[in-house]
Design brief:
The complex is a heterodimer of chains A (255) and B (329). With 255 residues, chain A is α/β, with parallel strands linked by helices. Chain A has helices spanning 44-52, 74-79, 97-108, 123-135, 151-163, 181-192, 207-213, 231-236, 238-245, and strands at 6-15, 18-28, 33-37, 59-64, 67-68, 82-84, 169-173, 199-203, 216-221, 224-229. Chain A folds into 2 domains: 1-81 and 167-255, Rossmann fold (3-Layer(aba) Sandwich); 91-164, no CATH class. Helices cover 34% and strands 23% of the residues of chain A. In chain A, strands 6-7-8-3-9-10 form a 6-stranded mixed beta sheet, sandwiched between helices. In chain A, strands 2-1-4-5 form a 4-stranded antiparallel beta sheet, covered by helices on one side. In chain A, strand 4 (59-64) and strand 5 (67-68) form a beta hairpin. Chain B is mainly alpha-helical. Chain B has a domain at 33-251. The radius of gyration of chain B is 20 Å and the shape is globular. Classes of the chains: A alpha/beta (255), B mainly alpha (329).
């Protein structure tokens, strides 16, 4: 088996009688730019929750690099290089953008437990946070509380927070959700410009963005992976066309 | 040009932690009772003790979002520890204070393992439970605590061998005020540290904290232990200055009072709690003079009025006023 940055092996999960993940196998090679698509309710976000440890699978294993992280708490997985963003903004509303990202950098460097030194003594951490924000075009608004940022900026701050943990693997849950089309292209350019050391898996509904920015596409339906391939293969796959691409309404498979 | 762009983000953070004139004025004003109201120094020392207790609650509630209805457990632990140390023959106040704070901190550390696992309503029930548990334990262990009659036989030696505790409360207030100021400096440093930032992160969104790799439980255990130590120090000073400890130090009433003081003054600002303690204690003194039986009626009215009119407490209202005044000028 080839080397992987993140892998799911035979993941099962059910909520009562509802099967949300059935024997899911997924491999993300280092530096990947993979898209995870599928109709609403297919289990895409659930899969991210399972891989990041927010949910515990009923069966199967999660491998981060060569390490089995199935039993690890979410924060332990983050510390080992697995970061995520949320479909619905999950920020620190009262912290400024700079404070938020500085906090994430301090957590990564294990200095967030220090209460006897002043924060401003941590020049490198603050500087690094400022650079991350600058790279995501948030440098000029870094002293605004997160709740006062424009929606698109909040989406970028989501990504900035994840990057501050220096991930090897980044899982983006609809990073452009709710962002106007023009802006979402900019947002995806920022994602495409991320270091090739980071393997990226993103959930996205907009097929144009998927085909433009993903090198491989994974299609999920009803808690299982239907098919995986290059964008061209997926676009011409009759199965995919039947369940997904042919429909105008993407909510078609809801429930 | 490059140097300014690099320095800018730090400058902004630095400006937030600079000492303001209002702060200096506040601490100078704490010296006024010595000159203006020497008859009220005993009340002033009670206020300083309450302020220290509120400060400890603000650290967990105002900064980390940990709601507690049983914070008197740590205040009482400190009070009994200081009282017992003195009763057993060591009346030196400073070491007694330190040991009592450590005892309360130890109890805080042990209980923090339960505290860290819960939030919101369950947390209120658990802290309430810890408070009740400890009070009844102290009641039944009357061989140790004196039970319902209180702990007798406490004698506090002069501070540094020089300052005797007098009837008028000069030493008591000076001692309580000095302890409050020193511990306040520590708390102020804490909230401007990386750890202080992490606490605000937990209050804002503890789920997201885990997603940036934070061990939130460990953070909560640390701040809870620190807060318990400070509450214990407040209790210890009460025991040392009044030379008596009654079961009331562990009571639900005390836990509720400290919460009221904090909400009255405004949470998450350090000074809010201090201001709340001053207003509450002075109001209680005045109201109970007017109408000893029903003074809680007025406290209740005051509480409702403040929360309705000033959701962020007295200090929140005050800073709103100054901002408006600045905007107008």
């Amino acid at each position: 088996m080839s080397e992987s940055a993140l892998a799911a092996r035979g993941i099962d999960k059910r909520f009562g009688s509802l099967i949300v993940a059935a024997d899911v196998d997924l491999t993300l090679p280092p530096g990947a730019r993979h898209a995870l698509i599928g109709p609403n309710g297919a289990g895409k976000t659930t899969l991210i929750n399972l891989m990041t440890g927010m949910l515990r699978p009923d069966g199967g294993r999660i491998l981060l690099g060569r390490e089995d992280v199935t039993a690890l708490a979410p924060e332990e997985r983050v510390r080992r290089g697995l970061a995520r963003t949320y479909q619905i903004n999950s920020l620190f509303p009262h912290l400024t953008a700079l404070e938020s990202v500085t906090l994430a950098v301090c957590e990564r460097r294990r200095v967030a437990q220090t209460w006897w030194r002043r924060l401003i003594a941590y020049r490198e951490e603050i500087e690094e946070a400022h650079q991350i924000l600058g790279a995501l075009m948030l440098g000029t608004v870094c002293h605004r509380p997160a709740r006062e940022l424009a929606y698109g900026q909040q989406r970028l701050l989501e990504i900035a927070l994840a990057l501050a943990s220096r991930p090897k693997v980044l899982l983006l849950d609809e990073p452009a959700a709710g962002v106007p089309r023009e802006e979402s292209k900019e947002l995806f350019s920022a994602i495409a410009g991320l270091s090739r050391d980071i393997a990226v898996l993103f959930i996205e509904h907009d097929m144009e963005l998927v085909f433009r920015f993903a090198t491989r596409v994974i299609v999920m339906v009803g808690g299982s992976i239907l098919v995986e391939g290059t964008p061209a293969e997926i676009a011409s796959d009759p199965q995919v066309r039947a369940v997904y691409l042919g429909k105008k309404q993407r909510e078609y498979h809801r429930g | 040009m490059t140097s300014t762009t690099i320095a800018a983000p730090r400058d902004h953070l630095q400006a937030q932690m600079r000492w303001r004139w209002g702060e200096i004025a506040f601490w100078l004003a704490t010296l006024l009772p010595f000159i203006l109201a020497p008859d009220y120094l005993l009340l002033a020392s009670q206020v300083a003790i309450a302020a220290l207790f509120v400060l400890s609650l603000d650290l967990i509630l105002g900064f980390a979002g940990i709601v507690s209805l049983g914070h008197a457990a740590y205040f009482g632990t400190g009070a009994y520890a200081a009282g017992l140390i003195s009763k057993w023959g060591w009346g030196e106040p400073l070491t007694g204070l330190l040991l009592a704070a450590l005892a309360a901190g130890l109890f805080g550390y042990v209980t923090s393992f339960i505290i860290a696992r819960f939030r919101h309503l369950p947390l209120i029930m658990i802290t309430l439970g810890i408070g009740l548990l400890l009070q009844e334990s102290a009641n039944s262990a009357s061989w140790l605590t004196g039970g319902f009659d209180g702990l007798q036989g406490i004698h506090t030696w002069p501070i540094l061998g020089r300052f005797r505790f007098d009837l008028y409360g000069y030493t008591a207030y000076g001692y309580a005020l000095a302890a409050l100021f020193v511990i306040f400096l520590g708390a102020r440093r804490l909230i401007h540290s990386p750890f202080g930032l992490a606490l605000r992160g937990i209050r804002d969104n503890s789920q997201r904290m885990r997603a940036i790799g934070a061990k939130t439980h460990s953070h909560i255990r640390t701040i809870y232990t620190i807060a318990a130590m400070i509450a214990g120090a407040a209790g210890a000073i009460l025991a040392q200055t009044t030379e008596t400890v009654s079961l009331e130090v562990l009571g639900f009433q005390r836990s509720a009072d400290v919460l009221v003081m904090l909400i009255l003054g405004g949470t998450g600002r350090l000074y809010g709690g201090l201001l709340g303690a001053v207003v509450y204690m002075v109001a209680r003194d005045q109201f109970s003079g007017l109408n000893p039986q029903y003074w809680y009626f007025w406290i209740g009215l005051l509480l409702i009025a403040v929360v309705v009119v000033l959701p962020n407490g007295l200090l929140g209202g005050l800073s709103l006023l100054t901002r408006r005044a600045k905007a107008q000028s």
